[in-house]
Design brief:
- It is built from ten helices and ten strands.
- By secondary structure, it is of the alpha/beta class.
- It has two domains: 1-52, no CATH class; 53-278, 2-enoyl-CoA Hydratase, Chain A, domain 1 (Alpha-Beta Complex).
- Helix 5 (135-150) runs parallel beside helix 6 (169-188).
- The longest helix has 20 residues, at 169-188.
- 35% of the residues are buried.
- The model has no long low-confidence stretch (mean pLDDT 87).
Length: 279
């Protein structure tokens, strides 16, 4: 209402022009909120705490101590082993995504300190081709895990993805096994791995490294699952519980260890890491 009055202006006066980009409509509560307040709250709604999508670089900035971040494999890019073409050639799609996002692929990996504790961390970014997992995502995460194992550090992966990248076919699915094997070696070294699930985390990502954490944390009301509800319903021929692919439902049924708001995530990760690394 306030925004509408500002746009209309007072009777007999010229309506004031509101600059674009100052306000954003929250999909959670449908209210129009001041964008700066959303950003100050780590991209969450000041009215209902809805968690907006967050760029991977901003997540790293909020989790890793200032001045301690070192990125690895930043220039790794996708090939086109299948010569895949759908509505456009696969490599053209990748180039377009690079220009749009400023990223080389859908994950950022490196090392840094979280509240003074050294960690290896990989953060996915949904804005790059739906956070899909192809060969680059699998290779970068595997290398991050192996570096953390060699350095005797904990590993953290923040996931957001629609699943495996169809344009790379079976090579994409192979990343499920490769990352899981690296996490197996990490576990054998008695080092912790924490998986953080954000909205959405689906399909091949959820079926592999996202579900293998010693501790699995999710943001509130995140969509988490293997496949869409329509496919599941048609397969099992049964009605599905309401909200069965949300963080809250999965937590109630033992698939998650913790639901944590974005504002509290850094402190919770530090608390868990201190306990696990001390042991």
């Amino acid at each position: 209402m306030v925004l509408e009055r500002l746009r209309r202006g007072a009777p007999g006066r010229e309506a004031k022009k509101i600059p674009d980009g100052l306000w954003v409509k929250c999909p959670g509560c449908a209210k129009t909120v001041f964008k700066r307040l959303v950003e100050e709250r780590l991209d969450t709604c000041p009215e209902c705490n809805h968690h907006f999508p967050m760029p991977g670089s901003r997540r790293i900035q909020n989790l890793i101590d200032e001045g301690t971040w070192t990125e690895f494999d930043a220039d790794m890019t996708s090939g086109d082993p299948l010569g895949f073409v759908d509505s456009k050639p696969y490599l053209d799609r990748i180039v377009q995504q690079m220009a749009k996002t400023g990223l080389k692929d859908a994950v950022i990996c490196g090392t840094g300190k979280l509240a003074g504790l050294g960690v290896g961390i990989g953060v996915m970014d949904f804005s790059f081709n739906g956070g899909s997992m192809g060969s680059v995502v699998g290779e970068k995460l595997t290398r991050m895990i192996e570096r953390a194992t060699a350095a005797k550090q904990a590993a953290i992966i923040v996931s957001t993805s629609g699943g495996a990248r169809m344009q790379e076919g079976a090579l994409s699915l192979m990343q499920m096994a490769k990352t899981s094997a690296a996490l197996g070696r990490h576990a054998q070294a008695k080092l912790p791995y924490i998986s953080v699930l954000t909205n959405p985390t689906m399909a091949g990502v959820m079926a592999s490294y996202a579900s293998l954490g010693d501790v699995i944390i999710a943001e509130p009301k995140a969509l988490i699952g293997f496949t869409g509800p329509r496919v599941i319903k048609e397969t099992i021929k049964q009605e599905l519980p309401e909200g069965f692919q949300t963080s809250e439902f999965l937590f109630q049924h033992g698939q998650l260890d913790l639901i944590c708001t974005r504002q509290d995530l850094r402190a919770e990760l530090a608390r868990i890491l201190r306990y696990l690394m001390a042991r």
